[in-house]
Amino acid sequence: MGKLGLTVITIFKMLMLRIFLIIFSLTLVSAGQAIAVEESSSDLDNYFIEGEKWKEGKIILPRYPRSRHLMEFTVDSAGAPFEYFIDRESLSIGQDYIVRFTVVIKSKSGAENVIYEGIRCETQEYKTYAYGSQDEKFMKASNPSWNILTRSGGTAYRYELYANYLCGNSPVPLKISEMIRRIEVDDQQTNLGSYDY
């Protein structure tokens, strides 16, 4: 075989070696990218951390309600033997988004129940924190727990507060000024009769 033949073979071998090296390096790059993608998605999983679990704030009992601060509200229950009032001075919204308030329930005979409660708009739940005593002081409820609001029965007033006055059927509380406005408008309608539209 002449020099020319050897040169062609050598060039061919070198060309094949270069092609092999290019293919090999491309394979390594692809594998590296796949690993990088896998690692980056794994990193994303590490960064996707669920927000802090909801935690109820500290409870501070309000002052006992005074008659001049009571606003009457309507409970849509035919023939209800009670009148319902909310103490405007007790209305608050905590950093935990709980609306807390004192409600006063009066019977036709003059008996009165005073209750300090909270409503969590997001979950439509309520909690009773304290009950009023005859000497006009609050007594803390033992083992208070969250319960689902109900639309009927003796506790329907809580659902009424949630739906129409405190949350407006929303997962977040209304502003306190709006709560008071809604109750005052309702109180005026109760005392003056319903408006004609």
Task: Give a verbal description of the structure.
With 197 residues, the chain is of the alpha+beta class. The protein is built from three helices and eight strands; from the N terminus they run αββββββββαα. The longest helix is centred in the N-terminal third of the chain and has 45 residues, at 3-47.
Key structural traits:
eight-stranded antiparallel β-sheet; single chain; 197 residues; disordered C terminus; alpha+beta; 3 helices
Low-confidence stretches: 34-42, 192-197
Q: How many β-strands, per DSSP? A: 8
Shape: rod-shaped
The end-to-end span amounts to 113 Å
Give average pLDDT, whole number: 81
Largest sheet: 8 strands, antiparallel
The SSE string, one letter per element, is HEEEEEEEEHH
Output the number of helix runs: 3
How large is the share of residues in beta strands?
15-25%
Specify the structural class.
alpha+beta
Give the radius of gyration.
Answer: 35 Å
Helicity range of the residues?
A: 25-40%
Determine the oligomeric state from the structure.
Answer: single chain
